[in-house]
Each structure stands twice: as structure tokens, then as C-alpha cells.
């Protein structure tokens, strides 16, 4: 007597409309987290995304899960910007400039506090995204240094903290109004990164690990 083998079932793939709904939720959440902080009501996020509350909770069982997805999606987009810059074969410093400006548009200044206070910053998903992004930015900066275009006394932490600080809206200023000066100030910062350096920097080059320990 032969034992019947279990029937192998194919894993069901999410429907296209379900994926679109998930993307709309993440996009709406990112916008509202930037505008109002991580405590914005989930029903407001659902309303902006054009879906029902049940759809939000079906995709994200709690607020932490949604915040983590938003942060990871921003990290992934930042990583994609670094990959695109690194793939360029032209001027190494100009590629770094394009990455910095693209990253500022992701509003990481608004999302950084969420990483520290809203959920476990050592979550595997976040750690993987962060490590990949850091490696690419280091490679991007090393290439500009090797070309003699980037001053040698700056580290990836210096660049990332400058992006976060310079793209942060002043107290009482709506996020959408910072676009008038963010890229102007970032360019002033970038011009200060060019080699040869005109002055010695105090302290030592910052790494991302230095920032995490601060």
C-alpha cells in the first residue's frame, strides 16, 4: 500500500491591486509622518491613501510595522540613488553631489527621530537596508577621494548628518517650505567638501557608527 504524497500548493502571489494599495499606504504614511510626525492617526493615513482602515491593518498589524516599512522604503530609495550615482562613469564629485541632493528629497531629517524612538532600530530589515546604503556611500566617497576631488578628512557620517541637519525645517516652518533653501544650503556644504581643503577640520572624520553612539 502506497502512502499518498501531500499535494504541493503554489504560494499565492499578492494581487496587483493589493500591491498597489500597500504602496499607496506607504507613500501616504511617509508624507504624513514627514508633515505631522509618527503619531498621525492611522485613519488619516488610510484616508490620504484612498483605502479603508481595514486595508491598512491587513497590511500592517500595528503602527510600528508601518513606521518600519516607511523607514525601510526610504532607505531602499536612498540606496537606489547611491547605486545610480556609483554607476555613473563621469565626474566622481558630481555623482556624489547628485546623490546628496536626491537623499535630501527623501526627508531623512524627519524620519531619523522615528528610527530612534518608535521601534527597534536593530530590526533585521532596517539593519540590512542601512548597511547596504552605508557601503555604497563609502564607495561613492572613496571614488571621489581617489580622483582628488573630495577632501580626505571627511567620513560618511559627516555627509549623512549634514544632509539630515540641512534638510530639517526650522521650528515652526512647514516641511514643504524648506525646498526654497535646502538645496541651496546643501550646495554650499558640498562646495566645502571639494579638494583641496582650505582649512583643517576640528576633530576626526565621522562614521555612521559614531553617529549611532552619540
Automatic annotation (TrEMBL):
Domain HTH tetR-type positions: 19-78
Keyword list, A-Z: DNA-binding, Transcription, Transcription regulation
DNA-binding region: 41-60
Annotated organism of origin: Streptomyces actuosus
Recorded GO MF terms: DNA-binding transcription factor activity; transcription cis-regulatory region binding
InterPro entries: Homeodomain-like_sf, HTH-type_TetR-like_transc_reg, HTH_TetR, Tet_transcr_reg_TetR-rel_C_sf, TetR_SbtR-like_C
Keyword Nucleus: no
The name this protein goes by in its record: TetR family transcriptional regulator
